[in-house]
């Protein structure tokens, strides 16, 4: 994909944060953009006749996702890139998180992205062209205190993306997972948290919650640069499968690889010994 070519991008969760910055960057690059959010009054300023289509969208509603994709296709004639950005956070230790809160994270962060994937894939398959960009998190590679179920929702999206990439490779559709660390968006400030903290977790999940709140407006990541990096990756001659964003993401990602390598290698004999011996197979 040539960065100079005008493509149609469908971006979810554009009212704030990464979604808004991505939409603004794409419009600045002369791309055509389907700009979506649950409330269109928050994205009305991004409307551009002939260039930006503003749609109301709740990604947890599968029927609405299909309808939005159909409207986008009717308006622009094609969909080239889906950017699954919509998501929510929640701060609590695993034990402090009740089932309703955990399911809400999965409904938005995982099933919301899956709903949009199902909505756009038929047209991408038919054209044998397209790219699905799933914004997960460095928390989708390594778990962190106070965001266990959030990380679980992002790990799930990572797994779905890996499978999807293999299934779509012969069909000309690419998949990119983007794993940011802390960026200066509204995410940490808008996330809900447990109302019934457990004292035993105060030094772990409790300390992490306080650190998240204290970081608001001070995060190292620049969302404008992140938007530009995503555009660069998608339009590269050879797009990556994974894109870490931020110094912390690089450090955490590399540390996770080393941790896994150490355990895999150190326990290789035990791992391989779990199979039937060749003479018994």
TrEMBL record:
Entry similarity comment: Belongs to the short-chain dehydrogenases/reductases (SDR) family.
Taxonomic lineage from the root: Bacteria, Pseudomonadati, Pseudomonadota, Betaproteobacteria, Burkholderiales
UniProt entry tagged with the keyword Methyltransferase: no
Domain of life: Bacteria
Xref: PANTHER family: SHORT CHAIN DEHYDROGENASE, SHORT-CHAIN DEHYDROGENASE_REDUCTASE FAMILY PROTEIN
Annotated protein name in UniProt: Oxidoreductase
Record PROSITE patterns: ADH_SHORT (PS00061)
Record domain Ketoreductase: where: 7-183
SMART domains: PKS_KR (SM00822)
Alphabetical list of SUPFAM superfamilies matching this protein: NAD(P)-binding Rossmann-fold domains
Keywords: Oxidoreductase
Native species: Massilia niabensis
